[in-house]
Amino acid sequence: MYGEYVKGFDNAMELVKNMTERIPQFKSIIEEIQKQKICGSLTLQHHMLEPVQRIPRYEMLLKDYLRKLPPGSPDWNDAKKSLEIISTAASHSNSAIRKMENLKKLLEIYEMLGEEEDIVNPSNELIKEGQILKLAARNTSAQERYLFLFNNMLLYCVPRFSLVGSKFTVRTRVGIDGMKIVETHNEEYPHTFQVSGKERTLELQASSEQDKEEWIKALQETIDAFHQRHETFRNAIAKDNDIHSEVSTAELGKRAPRWIRDNEVTMCMKCKESFNALTRRRHHCRACGHVVCWKCSDYKAQLEYDGGKLSKVCKDCYQIISGFTDSEEKKRKGILEIESAEVSGNSVVCSFLQYMEKSKPWQKAWCVIPKQDPLVLYMYGAPQDVRAQATIPLLGYIVDDMLRSADLPHSFKLTQSKSVHSFAADSEELKQKWLKIILLAVTGETPDGPGKHPATLDDDPEPKRKSEC
């Protein structure tokens, strides 16, 4: 609730400001209320700001209290636990603020680019932007350009001279995947460096040596972070599928792959678009075994294990087997927020559960509470999906495990204000396994001990019930 209030705070303040300026009757009523003694001579906006500041104030107060509290005090443990809970709430609010600010910035850039580039996505994050000079290859003249660096791409733009509307035109979109940065030396043009990507290589000139170093640092850190995320994802899949021998790059086309089952994914494993029965059906790459859509499998290559027969493969395998590259293709690649295989392989608990929100029909979901985020429940369509369909921050929810339906005897419900989430497990044992973890999470607690393993069926299911009051 606090995170939602914080996310909507800027819009609410702007709405009050606009209505006060445009509607005299509204302004008059607000001023009349503000004169009341109970308002303490403070404005409506001041009172609206109070909830935003309240949690950080509690956090600072408890930190100061703990500093001055003797370690042997009987209040020490309770105060320390209170600080942990309030810090979690503050972290959630800060995260909500950052996400909102990021989306606002993306919208601004979207408008600056003439609303032609599809960049408004929560997974996109602006890292750096600024003016730059581009050295022309033919006449070595310097041309004014503008760069937008995101966590997954670099937009190379040309200024558009117009009084209204967009400010820039995107000349090239260079993906971070495969990008390299090289510091160059040009006697005639100082402060130069080179950005080399799959789509294009750019020779750029910064305004100063400091500006050059800042761009190189930002670009290199973005590249390193991108590869680290994807390496973690690949390692998680390998760990989660040890029993399935993955075909190595050197063996592509030479050894038959293990096919990923259709029901293990709900979206294309290359472009991340969701499958459907009409326009985006499932296809298998005959080289790596991944489930892909028709657009991502519109390639054919000779496979040695199949007697050199031309077979349908995905774009990545086609490029490796044939040795061809497609530098002109500018398809936007989705960036992963948090992947099912990654969190499932390092989770407190994970399994399939039946799920229902309010009065919607029941549906099967792959549910995960990851170790690195043990107070949030992630829900996926299938164990191999690369993007969560929904998340539930568990802190503050009330748990109700009363039997409500003979058809779903192993069910439980999470409620908070108007939010109601119902779950059903396949067995009482699995239900108790989930309740043991959830009942800790709703109070801000996590499984004890630094070496605690994910919950198993052997765990003793004796959770403490949270009372409804």
From TrEMBL:
PH domain span: 125-224, 346-443
Keywords: Cytoplasm, Cytoskeleton, Guanine-nucleotide releasing factor, Metal-binding, Phosphoprotein, Repeat, Zinc, Zinc-finger
Xref: Pfam families: FYVE, PH, RhoGEF
Keyword Ligase: no
Domain annotation FYVE-type: ranges: 262-322
Region (Disordered) residue spans: 445-469
Location(s) in or outside the cell: Cytoplasm, Cytoskeleton
Listed Gene3D superfamilies: Dbl homology (DH) domain, Pleckstrin-homology domain (PH domain)/Phosphotyrosine-binding domain (PTB), Zinc/RING finger domain, C3HC4 (zinc finger)
Limits of the DH domain: 1-96
Location (main, coarse): cytoplasm
Name used for this protein in its record: FYVE, RhoGEF and PH domain-containing protein 4 isoform X4
Source species: Balaenoptera acutorostrata (Common minke whale)
Species classification: Eukaryota, Metazoa, Chordata, Craniata, Vertebrata
Gene name, Swiss-Prot/TrEMBL: FGD4
